[in-house]
Design brief:
A hairpin with a 3-residue loop joins strand 7 and strand 8. The chain is about 30% helix and about 25% strand. The longest helix has 11 residues. By secondary structure, it is of the alpha+beta class. It has three domains: about 80 residues, 434 Repressor (Amino-terminal Domain) (Orthogonal Bundle); about 70 residues, Orthogonal Bundle (434 Repressor (Amino-terminal Domain)), CATH 1.10.260; about 130 residues, Umud Fragment, subunit A, CATH 2.10.109.
């Protein structure tokens, strides 16, 4: 029987994410977790494929030897090196995250929605299949009212430094359509207290931000009518990220952006009642279609 923890060790030594192993086997990202819990079974051919991919051996992955790393020389000979890594785990401290989440009475689903993460993301973090990057951990720290250093185990003090407790005000524009693009992002009243949002100073140091109030239900259930989204100014986003997009120079919409191989852009709604909109690379240039920023936080209607 395969030892999933030994797969983690060998992957850590080689610098390979567990998701890549699932891809290698043609399985979904939660496959190894299911094998570990006894819900799926990995056959011998799969185990040998993983062993070859990680430069280890079938015997190591099935508890027949403690020698994890196999180095192959040009003459075809091999030498085995005993593992020095045991129970490898990401630097991100999942237990601390979970404690802060519970203390703030937040569900995992809520945290995923606020940070625009896929379903069951935190289960994958717990099981070692995902490792949050620095940008995500900083956003998470803001949501959990703690610090990056605490979530990374660099300090035992979860409190935010005094200098960081005073937020930075950013402009709240409203409303931007999450359904049909409308002429917006121009109705800001600096004298109206409700026309401002506040973000953490640490976040503010990472870029320039603005806020938008959402109108419509095309991004439900993650983003509801009346919600406010915090947006980081940037001219491009990765495929699958949610962004505020300007169309024809005078309309804006909040959508998930998907890029195709020809440089075209698909604007996807979360609500299946709304069909996707597709723009070719030529249309993106001529209309134009321009990304104004990436949605980094969702705040419910007050």
């Amino acid at each position: 029987m395969v030892n999933i923890n030994r797969i983690r060790n060998a992957a850590a030594l080689k610098g390979v994410k567990l998701g890549k192993i699932c891809e290698l086997l043609g399985e979904k990202s939660n496959y190894l977790g299911k094998v570990e819990r006894g819900l799926r079974k990995m056959d011998d051919n799969q185990i040998r494929a993983v062993a070859d991919f990680l430069d280890t051996s079938y015997e190591y992955l099935t508890n027949q030897t403690d020698y994890v790393y196999r180095k192959t020389f040009q003459n075809g000979g091999t030498i085995s090196i005993k593992a020095t890594v045991n129970n490898a785990k990401p630097n991100f401290d999942y237990d601390r995250f979970n404690e802060r989440r519970i203390a703030r009475h937040l569900t995992p689903d809520y945290v995923e929605a606020q940070l625009n993460l896929p379903e069951d993301y935190w289960e994958d973090v717990r099981d070692g299949y995902e490792n949050p990057d620095t940008q995500l951990i900083n956003k998470l720290a803001v949501l959990l009212e703690t610090t990056y250093d605490y979530l990374m185990g660099l300090t035992d003090n979860p409190e935010i430094p005094l200098d960081d407790r005073t937020g930075v005000k950013i402009k709240l524009f409203g409303e931007v359509a999450a359904g049909i693009p409308i002429k917006q992002i121009d109705n800001f009243d600096p004298d109206d207290e409700s026309s401002w949002e506040e973000i953490n100073r640490s976040t503010a140091k990472n870029g320039t931000y603005f806020a938008l109030r959402i109108k419509g239900d095309s991004m439900a259930t993650r983003i509801q009518n009346g919600d406010r989204v915090i947006v980081r100014y940037q001219e491009t986003v990765e495929s699958g990220q949610t962004a505020v997009v300007a169309i024809n120079g005078d309309t804006a919409t909040c959508k998930k952006v998907i890029w195709d191989e020809q440089g075209g852009m698909i604007l996807m709604s979360n609500n299946p009642a709304y069909p996707p909109r597709y723009f070719t690379a030529e249309q993106i240039q001529k209309l134009p279609v321009r990304i104004l920023g990436r949605v980094v936080e969702i705040r419910g209607e007050p």
